[in-house]
Amino acid sequence: MTREEFGERVAELAIAADEIMQAKSDDYAAEFDVLDNFKRVGGLLSIEPRTVWAVYFLKHVTALSEWGGSGTLQSESIQERFFDAYNYIKLGYALAAEELDA
Questions:
Q1: Could you tell me the pTM of the whole model?
Q2: How many domains does the chain contain in total?
Q3: Residue ranges making up the domain that contains 66
Q4: Closest CA relative to residue 17, chosen from 81, 101, 93
């Protein structure tokens, strides 16, 4: 894969992940807090929002690891798993930034 092809793939990843984030945002985020889902679930379970994030993120890492071993996934395409993992990286970064700013 050339650097140009790699750059194109990275751009595809960012665009597709952003589209998914926008489409799902209303289902998970409060009007004024993109991170509300992690905070709400954390409150219900008496755990930190970052712990909720870690559990959700690891679900995608586990699926990616399965693909890395077997080369197959059953329920979603590998592209969708990468899109989701990329979005969880962004959400985790936002949680860390918010925590550091507090």
A1: 0.86
A2: 1
A3: 3-101
A4: 81
